Structure formats: structure tokens, C-alpha cells
Amino acid sequence: MALSNVLETPLPGFNFDNAARNAALEGLYDGGQTPKPMKTGTTIAGVVFKDGVVLGADTRATSGEVVADKMCSKIHYIAPNIYCCGAGTAADTEKTTELLSSNLTIFSQTSGRNPRLVMAVNILQDMLYRYHGQIGASLILGGVDCTGNHLYTVGPYGSVNKMPYLAMGSGDLAALGILEDRYQQDMELDTAKELVRVAIHAGIMNDLASGNNIDICVITREGVDYIRPYQESEYKDRNMKYRYRPGTTPVLTKKVVPLKLEVVQESVQQMETI
Amino acid sequence: MNTRGLRSQLKDSVPVAGLCPQGAYGVQDSLRSGFTSVKNELLPSHPLELSEKNFMLNQDKMNFSSLRNIQGLHAPLKLQMEYRAARQIQRLPFLQSSNLALDTLRGNDESIGFEDILNDPTQSEMMGEPHMMVEYKLGLM
Lengths: 274, 141
Description:
Chain A: This is Proteasome subunit beta. Chain A: One of its GO terms (cellular component) is proteasome core complex. The structure holds 2 protein chains of 2 kinds. By secondary structure, chain A is of the alpha+beta class. Chain A is 27% helix and 27% strand. Chain A has helices at residues 19-26, 90-111, 117-130, 172-182, 189-206, and strands spanning 2-3, 39-40, 44-48, 52-58, 61-63, 66-69, 75-79, 82-89, 137-145, 148-154, 160-162, 165-168, 214-220, 224-231. Chain A is extended. Chain B is globular. Chain A binds chain B through residues 1-17, 19-20, 23, 99, 102-103, 106-107, 110, 127, 130-132, 134, and chain B through 17-18, 22, 32-33, 40, 44-49, 51-53, 55, 93-94, 96, 110-116, 118-121, 124-130, 132-133, 136, 141.
């Protein structure tokens, strides 16, 4: 269909044509009943230990006051040696990390090198600063590369922080309390996993928007161990299998009619078992 | 806010269709673009609209000026000459051109951004009217 009012093809990328219409519509709904995007009101945390990095996250995604996803995956794959936890708007964290992962894959294939964590952080920082916070993604990136074990956080407006232990999300204060108290340099793997577990647990206990299970991801020079779920919540959902036990519906009558079959032809084929 | 100043700032950058009237003599063309409202014309309604329209231009300006400061005038001159040459390899305005040379020069062939996913012109369901678009491009409209 040829439109006669289009004089130049629209530029690719974001299209802001509906922004004026949305602003006008928002005034029409009393009390703001516009649908809310799904947020991962979250607790995410990360810790650097002797041989690598441990990342942890809860698994609850909320949409307003309703739990939208009880087993949401907040630890995203970026590169074989880099993983990223995401808090904020669920779609934004998902798509931003996918874009980052694609860009790093292209880079590693054209240059023949493994991506470094600083490259991922710089790409994210440029992208998030360009959109001035409209992309609501707070991310904790952790990974092991040729320069060592690193843990960075990138805020939604593009701020970057490099620390040996970090927590983000709505439950970050509770998790940070645990991390501040018990973090030590050069911990062993089990101590680090336990520390992250306790930190996320504190976030789950003290924050409404975090809950359900705890996922842990351990990144070392040898490889990645993504344990999902590391700890399941005690409050399980009802059984999701809808199979009824025999006898649920009463049997009223039963009629058995045997089928009379005659053997017409019989042939034997030998199977070759090699 | 000085509205005339804002309008002149808008004119210096890429012509933004919808923010400046498109009709003859700078008057809003109600037949093609619909009714106007003063508020819509003065300010873009989304905080990112202006910065996104001019993003490529501003990046280029920044890069060329720092290149000029580091390497001298010849470096941005040569690059801009190549950009101009690559930008001329286009199809007619209503058809999509691949911009392969321009993308390679800019480095866009090795990165994926929102402009490759959202609102992809090669997959747009609408087409512009060929005659009008060519006339607009040639400045006959």
C-alpha cells in the first residue's frame, strides 16, 4: 500500500509517533490504570572469590502487586566466561543482555579473541547512557577473562561500579548488609556460595518483591556451573500435574466384548543382529 | 522558552518530518499531515525523540573533531570524503538500499543495535508513493 503522506522513509530504530497519543491517553484514565510492565523487583548479588565469581539471584517477577513469574531466570548468558544478573524491567534486562551477547559473539568471531569483561561493561554503559535511563535495566556483570576475575555493576542511567561484592534490585539493602558483614578476600568456593545464598535469602525475607527460589551461577577459569535452583523455597506451589488418580470418577457399568480374530497368514522374517 | 530559537536549532540539524511544517511556504499542510497543535509543533513529546534523531550526526561530529585535534585536518577530511562517496550509492528513495559501503565504513556491519531490530525499513508494510518521494528528494515539491 502506498501512503501519500510519507515523503521520506522513517529511520530504523525507535519510533516515537505514539508518544503524544500515550501522553494524551494517560490523562484519561483516573488513578493511572495503564498496564504496568513486568518488573523483576529483585535481589541479585555477586561475589568475587579466589578462583572466580559467584552470581546469585532470586526467581520472582512481579507485575504490579501480582507475582507474574515464580521461576523467572535472572542470570543471563553473555559469553562463555561472562554472565549477567538483571534487575529492573524484565523485558529490558532480557533484551539488553541479548543484544550485548550478540555483539560480543560477533566481536569474538571477527577478532578471534575471547571477549573481556570491560568490553561488555563499556558497550552496556554506552547503550544505557544513550537512552538516558528509559531502558530500566540494572545489571551485575561477572566473569573470568585473561586479566582476572571481575565483578561490575551498570545502572540504568549508565553508571558503572567495580567492586568485589555487589547487590542490586529492590532487596539490595538487605543483601548488602550480609555481604558487608561477612565478605572476605580470597574466599573458597563453598564459603562464597554460602555467602551469596545467605545474602539472597536475606533479600527474599525482607523484600516483598523478591521471593521463591535462589539461583546460583559459579564462573571459574575451568567453566561455568549454573545451578538452577540452588535452593527451593519451602512454600511450594500446588502440584501442577493434572492427572486424576484411578477411581476419581465412579464406574457405573462395564461391558466386555471379545473380538474374534482368525490367523489368516503367518510369515517369519529373520532379523539380522550385527 | 524562546520558541523561535528552538525552531532554528531544529532546522540546523536533520530536518525532522512532523516537527517542521511540510507544506509550501512553511505552512502546515492539513491535507497530508492533519491538523496541527501548537504544543505538538514546538516540543517533541518524548524526551529521547530529538536526541535519537540527531544521534548519528552528533556522534560523527564528536569523532571528527577529536580526530582533527589528534591527527590534523587531513584525517577527518579524508574520512568525510569516503563517507560522501559511500552515501551516494543509493537506490531511488522509495526503495530500500542496503548501504553496505556506508555500514562498513562506520563499523555498523559488526554490531547489532536497536536500529537493526526495530522498525526495519526492509520489512515495513507501508510504502511511500514513488512519484512524490522522488519529487521531494529532487526538491521539486
